[in-house]
Amino acid sequence: MDFESRTYGDVLVIRPLVQMIDAQNASSFKGWMVDYILQGEKKVALDLSGVDFMDSSGLSALISSAKTMQGRGRLVLCGVGTNVSRLLSITRLDRGVFEIHQDEERAVEALKGDD
Questions:
Q1: N or C: lower Cβ tally within 10 Å for the chain?
Q2: What is the model's pTM?
Q3: What is the H or E stretch that residue 96 is in?
Q4: HSE (CB half, 13 Å, CA atoms) of 57?
């Protein structure tokens, strides 16, 4: 799985370059996310604007990434499309588990506010 990443000060923005996070690539997605976190990234915005579909494997990888971040820093989501938003809503992960911002700019601003 390919990612695009960029930094804004101490905020890392990661954008998966896939349309689906599913059983075929969820393990790779989780590995990349955990690697970024364990390398010391404390403020991470995951831009899901290009992801149109996520199955339970992808959701599990996302939850695992959030658990890895606990106590280390903060992970927020941004650019969440309709289908992924619906999945997060149905599973109630959009209520208190994941902080979701409309776009990358707002996510970066929210994370910069942690200083």
A1: C
A2: 0.93
A3: none
A4: 11
Task: Convert the pLDDT of each residue in 65-108 to its tens digit.
Answer: 999 999 999 999 999 999 999 999 999 999 989 999 999 999 99
The per-residue pLDDT for 115 is 59
Task: Note whether 80 and 46 are within 8 A (CB).
Answer: no
Residue carrying the six token digits 């989501």: 77
Q: Say which amino acid occupies 57.
A: S
Distance linking the first and last C-alpha atoms of the chain: 32
Q: Which two tokens stand for residue 46?
A: 């995951």
CA distances, 87 to each of 16, 70, 83, 106, 115 (Å): 18, 22, 6, 22, 32
Average pLDDT rounded to a whole number, residues 46-57: 96
